[in-house]
Amino acid sequence: MKFEDLLLDIGGFGRFQISILLLLCFPRINLPMHFLLHNFLAATPSHHCAIPHQEAFVNFTTEELLLISIPREPDGTFRSCEMFSQPQFYLLVNSSLQPENVSIIEHCKHGWVYDHSQFASTITTQWDLVCEQRGLNQATATFFFVGVTVGAVIFGYLSDRYGRKALLLLSLLCSLVFGMLSAASTSYTMLAATRTLTGVALSGISLIVLPLGMEWVDVQHRTLSGILTSIFWSIGNMLLAMVAYLVRDWRWLLVAVTAPCLLSIVCLWWVPESARWLIANGKVKQAHRHLLRCARVNGRKDFTISTEALRRMTTEKSGHSYSYLSLFRTPVLRKISLCSGAVWFGVAFSYYGMSMNLTGFGLNMYLSQFVFGIIEIPAKLIMYVLVNQVGRRQSQAWTLILSGLCIGANIIIPKSFTSLRSVVAVMGKGFSEAAFTAVFLYTSELYPTVLRQSGMGYTSFVARLGGALAPLVLLLDSVWPSLPEVTYCGVAVCCGSMAFLLPETLHVRLPEGIEDVE
Predict the structure, then answer these.
(1) Which of 162, 212, 285, 476, by CA, is between 20 and 30 Å from 420?
(2) Where in the cell is it found (predicted)?
(3) How far is CA 266 from the centre of its chain?
């Protein structure tokens, strides 16, 4: 007897499974509020060099003081990173004149003055992460995703070895602690370290929530449960826009997005361990208790099964040790691991590339964040139809390829066509989210139970490499303004094509052991 047959007897999608999925939605909402927090945490408001000895110019208006102290760009705006070494009073007579001697222009020496009309405080204004220090601003997001990358390896392996629920609880507790420490940071170094550790902790939530819910659901409702769970990522996306709009100080914003971890920890009390994992690891007494509870809640009170019957269901020897090398030892698993890794990299690289470029959307950043969140919901619902009708493989490949093509299209469309560029950007974000929705579902179906979390850990590791590189690619605009978009487009199209090499999993039972895959 396979576990899928057992689910038919106890109810594969009853009140028990629905309650688990709903309880696991709370930690799911937490994720985007941290993963996309960089847009607001490290926002760079308008700024210019601080002007020394302003008390000598008390009779000048602010505009006049800037005119004689700060050089201007060709479009008339004041430069952010340069100032005149001496006041240029002749510009008061004719502001259109250009300084003849460029040697009088120098880099800011006395700090910067920031526009606080939109943000009370960000880490950029806290530690002057502008001009020559601009790279450190983008590096904050990279440090976070490096943490997520490391966490994927750690939690992927440990949750296969010690169980889904225990590691999910550990992940939530660490996320709460490190998130609060980030808010209390007294230096940039401390912030970088605590954000990295927060990324490590949050990676466990990202990895475990979906498989823990999916392993209790039958084949027929697997897609539905995966899509419904992922919708709460989009809800978290929209909530982030609302919270960031209301909380304009970066420290309190970190507290606001971290505090919900407490609610998730409370909800986890009612979530059972995966019976699939318990049986696969020989813990049949615990599995037996959870299965009887599931049958009772689902109204299958006549269900009975002995612990001996469950023990016979164990597909591998209890206590057999697996590692990440097991993903590459057999030919079919090796092909799955290489191709799915490439797909995950492309999905994350293009998704975060678009999500972290809110200011290029044509709307204010709060509205952009909200629109990018709300467009994900119809994208997920359409994906539910596609993966069931067209299949996982075709849906995964084409959504990622089309996401890349939308990014490429905006390179060609003139910037004066603001509305068209906005529509194409929203479409690209929708395709990107559809690809992300599919890849979580698809990958969890490709790997066997004994290696599922290790497989998710490995692919998440590769994806977070993409997430870590995505914000740094934005710095390439100093080489060529369109180079970041060309990079995002090329990677998405190439990685999307790799999905065609993966096996189809539509209406296929979840594999229990390695031999089921081979």
Answers:
(1) 476
(2) Apical cell membrane; Basolateral cell membrane
(3) 24
Torsion sign over Cα 228, 233, 237, 243 = positive
Please give the backbone phi and psi of residue 81, each rounded to the nearest 5 degrees, phi first: -120, 5
Task: Please answer whether residues 488 and 198 qualify as being in contact, where contact means their C-beta atoms are separated by less than 8 angstroms.
Answer: no
Could you tell me the sign of the dihedral formed by the alpha carbons of 385, 390, 395, 396, in that order? positive
The string of DSSP letters for 397-448 reads: HHHHHHHHHHHHHHHHS-TT-HHHHHHHHHHHHHHHHHHHHHHHHHHHHHS-
Judge whether 119 lies within some domain.
Answer: no
Where would I find the beta strands (DSSP E) of 97-213? 105-107, 112-114
Q: Is the pLDDT of residue 491 over 90?
A: yes
The number of beta carbons lying within 10 Å of the beta carbon of residue 269 is: 8
Query: Residues 279-329: pLDDT tens digits?
Result: 888 888 888 898 889 888 888 888 888 778 788 776 544 445 677 788 888
Please name the residue that has the structure tokens 């606080």. 116
Amino acid 29: pLDDT: 93
Separation in Å, CA 367 to CA 187, 359, 363: 31, 10, 6
Q: Are residues 156 and 257 in the same domain?
A: yes
Cβ–Cβ contacts within 10 Å for residue 317, how many?
Answer: 7
Domain of 282, CATH number, reads 1.20.1250.20
Q: What is the pTM for the complete model shown?
A: 0.81
Residue 75, pLDDT > 90, answer no
Burial class for 425, CB neighbours closer than 10 Å (0-12, 13-18, 19+): buried
Q: In this structure, are residues 179 and 27 in contact, taking their beta carbons and an 8 Å threshold?
A: no
CA dihedral 309, 310, 311, 312 (to 10 degrees): 60
> For residue 49, what is the enclosing H or E element?
strand 47-49
